[in-house]
Design a protein that fits this description.
Layout: E1 4-7, H1 13-24, E2 28-33, H2 36-46, E3 52-56, H3 62-70, E4 81-84, H4 100-128, E5 131-136, H5 149-168, E6 174-181, E7 184-185, H6 188-192, H7 197-203, E8 210-211, H8 212-223, E9 233-236
Parallel strand pairs: 1-2, 1-4, 2-3, 4-5, 5-6, 6-9, 7-8
Helix pairs in contact: 1-8, 3-4, 4-5
Bound molecules: NADPH dihydro-nicotinamide-adenine-dinucleotide phosphate and 2-hydroxyethylsulfonic acid.
Length: about 250
């Protein structure tokens, strides 16, 4: 049966790669993000094969989240798949020097934004007794590293929310699972370092990091399991990464 997926953070990195792969698999798409032109360009690219709708909102804006999702056109209102992907790290400062605006951004986007979108989408899945939620966590949600403090806290929260969702939705026909990547070469570090491209580039040098497409493939693997199989929690790192702090760089 034809499925519809909503992907947050579809303008870049993991979300964009996932949109491209799901379109190839014939899944209709609701693409979300703040950068309207990027959303539109991706929609134009993918709408040759599947139906695509774009939603332009900031996940921090509770009113906008509910307004956008609750007013989807009828043909997009039955959401089968939710990919909770929007998020970023902001800064890498030790706790005593932390920028409180960065803290707010990470908790508001990575945690509260994910909650708002989930709250807007999940009741429809419950009504239809069918759905699949994939929460993008991180190795940062499994292990804290120097300067990771609040970003790690936000991803530990995603881990807890993922577990809580699975418990609360048990028996309702909805699969819930988290994919927790290690280092993936996307715009992530450029955002973390506030546009410092040179510093960001260094994060991924001297080894072969994961690519956004690697994570998209894993998301598709989870989505394409038979209906009784739920990938509950999956951690993935590149060959050269052993932990958040141990990376075999040449
Ligand atoms: P990117 O920076 O490439 O993409 C981040 C996406 O999130 C963009 O599409 C951006 O869209 C969206 N986003 C950010 N803030 C908001 C907001 N306030 N409202 C709506 N959308 C927002 O990074 P990645 O693809 O790497 O990150 C995607 C997810 O993967 C994040 O949750 C990240 O924590 C997680 N992750 C990343 C890893 C990595 O090493 N790269 C490893 C583990 C997890 P726009 O700016 O248009 O709004
Ligand atoms: C992104 C991976 O190690 O940069 O979540 O925090 S890391």
């Amino acid at each position: 049966m034809k499925r519809t997926a909503i992907i947050t953070g579809a303008t870049s990195g993991i979300g964009k790669a996932t949109a491209i792969l799901l379109a190839k698999q014939g899944i209709d798409l609701i693409l979300c993000g703040r950068r309207k032109e990027k959303l539109q360009a991706l929609a134009d690219q993918l709408s040759k094969g599947v139906r695509v709708h774009t939603l332009n909102f900031d996940v921090r804006d509770k009113t906008a989240v509910f307004k956008n999702i609750n007013s989807l056109p009828h043909s997009f209102s039955r959401i089968d798949i939710l990919i909770n992907n929007a998020g970023n790290a902001h800064g890498l400062d030790p706790i005593q020097e932390g920028n409180t605006d960065d803290w707010d951004a990470m908790m508001d986007i990575n945690v509260k934004g994910l909650l708002y979108v989930s709250r807007a989408v999940i009741p429809g899945m419950i009504e239809r007794k069918n759905g699949h939620v994939i929460n993008i966590g991180s190795t940062a949600g499994k292990e804290v590293y120097p300067g990771g403090n609040v970003y790690c806290a936000s991803k530990f929260a995603v881990d807890a929310i993922n577990q809580g969702m699975r418990i609360d939705l048990n028996g309702k026909g909805i699969r819930v699972g988290a994919i927790n990547p290690g280092l993936v070469e996307t715009a992530f570090s450029e955002v973390r370092f506030k546009g410092d491209a040179e510093r960001a580039k260094k994060v991924y040098q001297g080894y072969t990091p994961l690519q956004a497409e690697d994570i998209a493939e894993i998301i598709w693997f989870a989505l394409s399991r038979p209906p009784h199989v739920n990938i509950a929690d999956l951690t993935v790192m590149c060959l050269d990464q052993a932990s958040s702090t141990i990376v075999n760089k040449t």
